[in-house]
Amino acid sequence: MKDDKTEDQILDAAEKIFQRKGMDGARMQEIANEAGINKAMLHYYYRTKRFLFEAVFSKAFSLIAPEINRVVNDDTELFEKIRKFTHSYIDFIQKHPYLPNFIIQELNRDSDFIKILQEKKGFPDFRNFRAQVEKEVRDGNIRPIKAEQLFIHLLSLNIFPFLAAPLFKGFLKLDDKTYKAMMEERKEEISDLLIKYLKNE
Amino acid sequence: MKDDKTEDQILDAAEKIFQRKGMDGARMQEIANEAGINKAMLHYYYRTKRFLFEAVFSKAFSLIAPEINRVVNDDTELFEKIRKFTHSYIDFIQKHPYLPNFIIQELNRDSDFIKILQEKKGFPDFRNFRAQVEKEVRDGNIRPIKAEQLFIHLLSLNIFPFLAAPLFKGFLKLDDKTYKAMMEERKEEISDLLIKYLKNE
DNA sequence: GTCTATAGAAGGATAGAC
DNA sequence: GTCTATCCTTCTATAGAC
Question: Which PANTHER family does the record associate with it (chains A, B) (predicted)?
Fold first, then answer.
């Protein structure tokens, strides 16, 4: 079982609170309440707030990393890859709506976090994707483009609409339901945009 | 002069601190130090931390709003508009690097903020842009696309790379200088992507 | 391992002199 | 308007009983 042990109950509770409120906004007491456990236990298992936070952050990142690796470390054909990533990422994020904001926010808050993550195994390695894009360009299958720019396009188009959901809902005057439906539509929209552009079609 | 009055000195200092650390991470003492002034003055002029924060947030939003209005409330021809927005937004953000993260973060933290902003004059009105895109589609000048999706594409491609700069620098193993150069390149990359797609060219 | 109680520090806010 | 001093609450963290 996942929640057998107090340590895991704490981590689950901390996840909820930290992802909603961030490192600075979260309170140890709140996490303890959420875990249905005493505040002293948090320190017993994780020593400090910072260590607990880092455990949560690492776990969050290890959820995202495989998604990224589907792009950079996978030998699917390029268009298929774009299509699959876009579809699966948007499904993934519907399940973890707080994740992108949490990651982005804390990386901007503490610039050392990314260095810690880079050391870990499973950290996405971009080289395969670069090679793949360069080959497609060389073979004349796609319009000339830098792999980095395509990668940034792909992630921006997929991630930002969730990060900026309150903003877009405000601008476009959409309710939650309509906005969610629009995110579903984007699976096709994004694939279509990138693939037709690359194919020069 | 801008900094004649204490009230403005405080607002400037608060801007710096809040934009770097957010509402929860910022300390009144830190803002006072930054302003070279006493902590009691902050309360004298702005009563509470929250009011001071709201003043900063409103000002930040009033800096971004005109940028958005260049897209939604301006009768420039569509392709020209995409090109101009992309170029000017990327310049704008190099001058205010903390702004997008600040806005997004606080809108996610407090979902009521957007409602307050919607009331204010100058809040972007999407209707003109929708009409413009619909007309271009009807006239057969561009590929069929919903105005909302195009709007989200445009903002995502422009804003996210700054928001996620630490992440992309980590993934792509780029230093600040190289990344900045890449953001310059994106002015053309983004325009090219959207316009060629729309023109079906 | 788990709890209660509390230390110790920090932060927002105010009183009151000038 | 501006400052110093201080109140009071909140928060992280630990001590110590069971």
Answer: HTH-TYPE TRANSCRIPTIONAL REPRESSOR SCO4008, TRANSCRIPTIONAL REPRESSOR
